[in-house]
Predict the 3D structure of the following.
Amino acid sequence: MATFQPKIEYDNAVATYNAVKIYGKIGSESAVTALNGVSLEVPLGQFLAVMGPSGSGKSTLLHCMAGLDNLTSGNVVIGSTNLNGLSDRQLTRLRRNSIGFMFQSFNLLPTLTAEQNIRLPSDLAGSSVDEKWFTTLIDLLGIRDRLKHRPSELSGGQQQRVAAARALLSKPTVVFADEPTGNLDSKAGALLLGFLRSSVHEHGQTIVMVTHDPNAASFADKAVLLADGQIIHSIESPTQKSVLEALETLGT
Amino acid sequence: MLTTILSSIRAHAGRLFASALAISLGVAFAVGTLVFTDTLKVAMIQSFAQGDQGIDVAVLPPQTTSPNQPGPGGGDGRSRIIHYLAPGILTQVQGISGVKSASGQLIGAAVILDKSGHPYGGRGTSFGVGVPSDPSFKWIKVLSGTRPTTASQVDLDSNTAATLNLNIGDTISVVGKSGLPQKFQVVGIVSVGLTQAFNGSSIIGFTPREAASVTGQAGFREIDVIAAPGVNQTTLSNRIASILGPNAVVETGATKTFNDENAVIKRANAIGNALLTFAVIAILVASIVIANTFRVLVTQRSRELALLRCLGATRNQVFKAIISESFATGVVASGIGIALGVLVAIGLHGIFGAFRGGGIPSAPIQITVRTLIIGSLVGVVTTVAASILPARSATRVSPLQALRHHSDTSFGGALTVKRLATSVALIAIGVLIIVTNLGANASLPLIAVGGALAFAGLLVFAPLVVRPVMTVLGIPARIFGTTGKLATLNTIRNPSRTASTSAALTIGLALISLFSVISSSLNASIDSTIAKNFPFDFVVTTALRGTTVPSSIATSASKTNLFKYVNEVRSGQAVVNGKNQDVSGVTPVLLSQSQLTITSGSLANFGASGTAVISSSLAHSLHVKVGETIAISGGLSTATALPPPSTTTVVAISNNLAFLSNLVIPVIDFAPRFPGVGDDELFLTAKPSVTLVQARAQLQKEIDPYPLVTSQDIGTFESNLSNKIGQILALFTALLALALLISFIGIANTLTLSVVERTRELGLLRSLGLTRPYVATMLALEGMLLAVMGAVLGIAIGVAASWGIVLVLNAQGVTVFSVPISLLIVDVVVAALAGILASLIPARRAAKTPPVVALATEV
């Protein structure tokens, strides 16, 4: 396998270089290699889908790229920041300023209204909100009349759109989305994916989305396929068909 | 950020309710104590003010030395040295120029008989006083009727009159020094200003002359002086002082009022401090409950906290969020606690009134700003402090947990070197502090600190014993089959939580069992002391402190020829080598029968006039040895002319004179020094030829004319002493009740939280066919196991600690270590039942869990 030299690539929103993640004591029998040398550059303004079967390491890759988990070796660079050796405080600052998150189970705070949930990250950071962007977002997402509602009063699709607004409000360098359509019906899923794609194409947002749904991947600019902790396939402008074919070769 | 916290509190209000209640109760106790103490102060000051009202100069007996300091091994705590002014001083004062009038407070022992002829009020709560004829002396105020003007007339204090349903015109029987009842007619109802002696006592007011005759008390506690018009208080006070010299202490009315108030405040504070100890215990228990609640809440909300961390919250923000939440809880809880505190104050008034028998003075409830501030501070600071550790662990929640679908459920309780070392270190330091602070100048706060440290050490260790203890305790639970097994396993799955939930109860029960064992040991020691030292058949005593068994009874009992021994014990105060000292006068043979431990000398030499046995502590303080002499002078019980000093030879020294004074002289030497003083106790042994029934009947005949005198078989005497200790134990338990209640709230709380946490699991059990009653039974068993574990650990700690204390007290006469096993078993059973009771609400909730939630993805 080729060895990549870590380099600062300002054009990339996020990049990993020879990322290795081993769970358990290295060399012991219980050690599990989740990532086995993943190098991946996500240029600014790209919508990347990370695909792969269960246990392929796609979730681990997302966690490590987002600085939620440490690599065993290798590098992750977000913007111009190498995550290696960052303190908890520095990582927190990075999450505030440069990263947005979307989760399969929405993860809205049940006690806050939709609007409070959207503004939560900037409240936590104590930073001001770009009100124009806020308005644009809620209109694009069609949740203007839902702002005063609590999550329990919203449908799954609405909840996930609130979560999308929350992730995008601070215009982070990169948004990490973990199976964002996993709990949504196909119509709500399509609505959300359409929004995510337009945020990339029209507003220059970068998104890294983990999914196992070929249809979801078809909204992305690029799809990478993981198996056994390695990237084994990369598809530009994926379609449902090309993704399925690639997955099938995997299965056999 | 504030919105996040506040909305989170609103959402968790229910979960926080129980822990807030725990803090509220703790605060309520503290506030109640303060309110009670303040109210008591005001009531007592008001009462004192009545006594001091309008007095320009007060003449008091001289205080030759600091009064009543029971030393180790000797002081029996029974005697309070009371000084009197000789009657001649009143005449002297009345003759001083500038004195308009002067009146002596004559206060002695006398008791009223109720309609069935029994002395009213019991031991030590009744006085006969001389009512001054001049109403300017306001320590006695006539509420209705008149002052007694003839020997056969008396006034009664309003409480006694009301309790006995007596009115003006009624005839009453009063027993004084003679021991024989005398008839008097009630002519007035009075209120009596409080003095140290009058706290809740019943008061019979005679003419001053009759008071002296009935009570046998000639001297005065105090002489009140009203100045002639135009005479300055200070001038008069100085004049009187210069004339009376060292025979009296003279104070201006203002000084007297000031001193009385200080004395009152001191006494009220002493009561308050004792109560505050229990409030501190309650708050300590509450803080454990709070810490536990927050720890559980943090665990339950770890996903939410992880999300906040994902969204850019710093550790500091998470910490602040938890602390703010506990702050808000503390504020609300303190508010409720302060309100409840007023109720507690009323309750304390009732408890103390009941305990003292005669009631305590009352005044409008006093709520001061200080109380409010202390109450809120205590509540808020405790809550916040208790949540610091849980808040710190909240900051360690990894943001990654937000993305995982099941939270990590690895819990503490592993045997680590660190845990063991911490535990051992804490216990060692705690025990060291306790041991170094025991002894003569024991510092109670430091001992408490040591106890708290040692207890903290045990708490650190406790999770390690959860598994073995629960495995054993779970055996009886198996009769409930699978339900019992599940319940046992549920208590083991999170040992730290189980340990800290039980810990709250452990504190209470450790203290209760500590006290139970010590009082039981005390009883057993008294029994063995009496059995060993007083091998007699009967004890004759009197029902009223300050009165004695007329010496004629001993004389006539001896003459019946039915008794082998008639041993007298008298007591009084004399001056020995210049210091006030309690003296016992005894029939010499009593000592040789009593098997006292003699450290030097011999009892064989005791009995002749001029011999004495003293305690080793007195020998130490007087620097005397066997064969050396001491000078006994004075006799403070009466103010009549005192016999000249006599030289007495110490013939033996004992390190344990049981309940005799530190100085014991033969009754033949005692009688002339304390003329007219009867016996405190008479110990009689029947002759072998006489049956006990015969002897008892004869003795009863001898004492029959004297209503205050009672005869008991030695066994009854013992059990009466035990009853007193039992009463103190009851009071102690009552004061700990709140701490116990709080710990059961803690159990209910933990169960409720765990039910919330286990909703899915409960749904699963339900869908697998566990019926509602079984779910409820499971929870009840969990509650019971938690309570029993807390109780068992508490009792283990309490018994161990009391064993140490009994060892230390061995020198003080607590020679027997006795564990009241049946009482402790009752404690465990009660704890088990209370544990089941605590499980009722969570069990209802658990039983209501529908099976379908097992399938829900989101909890």
In short: The first helix of chain B runs from residue 2 to 52. The radius of gyration of chain B is 33 Å. Chain B has 23 helices and 22 strands.
